[in-house]
């Protein structure tokens, strides 16, 4: 077996042992096709007030600017789909499933650091970096290039027989490996995600207007939520799973096997009235080391009030800004 084949087999085997659902490899190179798409998306201001998405434009498109001598991008998927008995009922205020347990950044980064250390122990001097949704890396594009799925009309990566309820992470290595190829798009004529989005964030297939997404309003936006989307959030107070829940491919989703993603037992018992009365102490208990920290207690209270009572009027001399962290 050639060294590249042996190295690739080792990495994929070790990734599976660490709990990753799938592992694929693509060549580290400039993303020529993505450059105009990203530029157009930003020029249409679909990033809203997420100014950071316009930063490091070149690095987003070329991993060799992130890791000297980069030759391979190893993409990994980690399932977070919760067991049915842990999922929140439809008659309560809801948070996105990915935020049920411990913050995925911590969980995945630990696994990736272990994987990189194991690669270096097995192969020798290998340079590289680990990435978990916190650096200018186009994770869905790299996962698509490595054959882990296709990017659907809701802009999520979708994997045949699995769906899309998983996290994507990367190792960028200065090691040459055997590269996988992309698979075809199986969305077909389906438009369920587009039809179901209550804020019309997916008005064009394969293009999501981030500035109109419920996840943007409830997590990223630090100002008051615009009155124009009042009544369109349903019962979502942190993130949104609508476009994934309606996707036919997610009927194949299976419960994760990562204990750190298990929800606090009290979460599924929370009713709308409990959410409206949530205290800072209970928030800290339920969401210790959770991705919910991104919006914070004050941000969650803002979201709950918006969903249950509608936006508060802004009086003369007042601003629309709010301290949410």
From TrEMBL:
<protein>
    <recommendedName>
        <fullName>Epoxyqueuosine reductase</fullName>
        <ecNumber>1.17.99.6</ecNumber>
    </recommendedName>
</protein>
<keyword id="KW-0170">Cobalt</keyword>
<feature type="binding site">
    <location>
        <position position="222"/>
    </location>
    <ligand>
        <name>tRNA</name>
    </ligand>
</feature>
<comment type="pathway">
    <text>tRNA modification; tRNA-queuosine biosynthesis.</text>
</comment>
<dbReference type="Pfam" id="PF08331">
    <property type="entry name" value="QueG_DUF1730"/>
</dbReference>
<dbReference type="InterPro" id="IPR017900">
    <property type="entry name" value="4Fe4S_Fe_S_CS"/>
</dbReference>
<feature type="binding site">
    <location>
        <position position="247"/>
    </location>
    <ligand>
        <name>[4Fe-4S] cluster 1</name>
    </ligand>
</feature>
<feature type="binding site">
    <location>
        <position position="215"/>
    </location>
    <ligand>
        <name>cob(II)alamin</name>
    </ligand>
</feature>
<dbReference type="InterPro" id="IPR017896">
    <property type="entry name" value="4Fe4S_Fe-S-bd"/>
</dbReference>
<feature type="binding site">
    <location>
        <begin position="240"/>
        <end position="241"/>
    </location>
    <ligand>
        <name>cob(II)alamin</name>
    </ligand>
</feature>
<feature type="binding site">
    <location>
        <position position="240"/>
    </location>
    <ligand>
        <name>[4Fe-4S] cluster 2</name>
    </ligand>
</feature>
<comment type="subunit">
    <text>Monomer.</text>
</comment>
<feature type="binding site">
    <location>
        <position position="168"/>
    </location>
    <ligand>
        <name>cob(II)alamin</name>
    </ligand>
</feature>
<feature type="binding site">
    <location>
        <position position="154"/>
    </location>
    <ligand>
        <name>cob(II)alamin</name>
    </ligand>
</feature>
<feature type="binding site">
    <location>
        <position position="197"/>
    </location>
    <ligand>
        <name>[4Fe-4S] cluster 2</name>
    </ligand>
</feature>
<dbReference type="GO" id="GO:0052693">
    <property type="term" value="F:epoxyqueuosine reductase activity"/>
</dbReference>
<keyword id="KW-0819">tRNA processing</keyword>
<feature type="domain" description="4Fe-4S ferredoxin-type">
    <location>
        <begin position="175"/>
        <end position="207"/>
    </location>
</feature>
<keyword id="KW-0846">Cobalamin</keyword>
<feature type="binding site">
    <location>
        <position position="133"/>
    </location>
    <ligand>
        <name>cob(II)alamin</name>
    </ligand>
</feature>
<dbReference type="GO" id="GO:0031419">
    <property type="term" value="F:cobalamin binding"/>
</dbReference>
<keyword id="KW-0560">Oxidoreductase</keyword>
<dbReference type="GO" id="GO:0008616">
    <property type="term" value="P:tRNA queuosine(34) biosynthetic process"/>
</dbReference>
<feature type="binding site">
    <location>
        <position position="243"/>
    </location>
    <ligand>
        <name>[4Fe-4S] cluster 2</name>
    </ligand>
</feature>
<feature type="binding site">
    <location>
        <position position="187"/>
    </location>
    <ligand>
        <name>[4Fe-4S] cluster 1</name>
    </ligand>
</feature>
<keyword id="KW-0671">Queuosine biosynthesis</keyword>
<comment type="similarity">
    <text>Belongs to the QueG family.</text>
</comment>
<feature type="binding site">
    <location>
        <position position="157"/>
    </location>
    <ligand>
        <name>cob(II)alamin</name>
    </ligand>
</feature>
<dbReference type="GO" id="GO:0046872">
    <property type="term" value="F:metal ion binding"/>
</dbReference>
<dbReference type="GO" id="GO:0051539">
    <property type="term" value="F:4 iron, 4 sulfur cluster binding"/>
</dbReference>
<feature type="binding site">
    <location>
        <position position="213"/>
    </location>
    <ligand>
        <name>[4Fe-4S] cluster 2</name>
    </ligand>
</feature>
<keyword id="KW-0963">Cytoplasm</keyword>
<keyword id="KW-0411">Iron-sulfur</keyword>
<dbReference type="GO" id="GO:0005737">
    <property type="term" value="C:cytoplasm"/>
</dbReference>
<feature type="active site" description="Proton donor">
    <location>
        <position position="133"/>
    </location>
</feature>
<keyword id="KW-0408">Iron</keyword>
<keyword id="KW-0479">Metal-binding</keyword>
<comment type="function">
    <text>Catalyzes the conversion of epoxyqueuosine (oQ) to queuosine (Q), which is a hypermodified base found in the wobble positions of tRNA(Asp), tRNA(Asn), tRNA(His) and tRNA(Tyr).</text>
</comment>
<feature type="binding site">
    <location>
        <position position="60"/>
    </location>
    <ligand>
        <name>cob(II)alamin</name>
    </ligand>
</feature>
<dbReference type="InterPro" id="IPR013542">
    <property type="entry name" value="QueG_DUF1730"/>
</dbReference>
<dbReference type="Pfam" id="PF13484">
    <property type="entry name" value="Fer4_16"/>
</dbReference>
<feature type="binding site">
    <location>
        <position position="193"/>
    </location>
    <ligand>
        <name>[4Fe-4S] cluster 1</name>
    </ligand>
</feature>
